[in-house]
Amino acid sequence: MAAPGENMKINGDRLWDSLMDMAKIGPGVAGGNNRQTLTDEDGEGRKLFQDWCEAAGMSMGVDTMGNMFATRAGEDPDALPVYVGSHLDTQPTGGKYDGVLGVLGGLELIRTMNDLGLKTKHPIVVTNWTNEEGTRYAPAMLSSGVFAGIHTEDWAKDREDAEGIKFGDELKRIGWEGDEPVGARKMHAMFELHIEQGPILEAEGKDIGVVTHGQGLSWTEVIIEGKDSHTGSTPMPMRKNAGLGMAKVLEKVDEIAWSHAPHAVGAAGHIDVYPNSRNVIPGKVVFTVDFRSPDLSVIEDMEARLRVEGQKIADDMGLTISFEKVGGFDPVTFDETCVSAVRNAAVRLGYSHRDLISGAGHDACWINQVAPTAMIMCPCVDGLSHNEAEEISKEWATAGTDVLLHAVLETAEIVE
Ligand SMILES: [Zn+2]
Fold this sequence. Notes:
Layout: H1 12-23, H2 40-55, E1 59-62, E2 68-72, E3 82-86, H3 100-116, E4 124-128, H4 142-147, H5 153-157, H6 167-173, E5 189-195, H7 200-204, E6 208-214, E7 216-225, E8 229-230, H8 242-258, E9 265-274, E10 280-281, E11 284-293, H9 296-317, E12 320-329, E13 332-333, H10 336-349, E14 353-358, H11 363-367, E15 373-378, H12 394-412
Helix pairs in contact: 1-3, 1-12, 3-12, 8-9, 10-12
Bound molecules: zinc ion (ZN).
């Protein structure tokens, strides 16, 4: 097996032109994109991607969840394909690069291989996963989740948008319900290139994030109850202030997350205060504590300490407190061989790099459960994403796709 030479690079101008052409479909109101899943614009974007793939000599397969698989044949008929890809759908006020870079980066590496007349032992498949964003149809990463056996197809197709339109009906309407059974494909490996959606790479001046883990998440809903009473006429010793109880618990949440620095994080982003009136001491608060870490034992420790510390605070203040786990998923450890292929590629190409933990969920996190998987990240300006102002440079996109090319070629094995 030959490793690609360090001077082998993709065509950054061609990649950038394709990113800009795709961004013309479903333009946003502020320079970004609104190409939500299963809309007419999503259908149009899919058609353009299909046309490009076919022009590059690939054949398109589509499964019954609308996942698209463009195949470049390999030399060994028994070798399983190496997959690359991400998603073409966007948030309602999304950027031009979130997801799209991973799909069109995959296409660009095939175009580069065609230019160079490169052959590989394993086929290479460029993938567009349906409904990664999860805004129109919750949850996020829906179709890669069905592919990996996390959700059933029937359940996924029954999801409804805000207008009550079912996922399955919309998929048929836009004409992208394929005939392949979901999840039947077997993979040699899968690589996803994505923008970081965080500030670390740009702040440290690094070209490439070698993603080793995906953060796990835990949501605990906490309800604290005291007694509503007048803010003016209730003496301090006679108050049962649920709002103050929450403030003390949130101080602990912060302390608990800091105790597992640097990778653990914790906060409450959702808070309801009752009755939420200027002159009433809150008698009840409901809030959700969000803890994240790449290490499952750390998440479990943070959950347990929240319950112990929270109970102590409530007991001291004469309040009642209850805890319910309302959501979460386990941390992801990406495949060591695939991660090494990414790191080796960055080294070979002379790009600055660092290991990174993905703070957001990605299709690769589900696919990692059924195939060896890794992710490559490139910087984005101010870490901004899920925003029309999301921005990256052509150089960053090119570096990320160069690394994708090299990692894929090492894994798919160049022949001759
Ligand atoms: Zn994305």
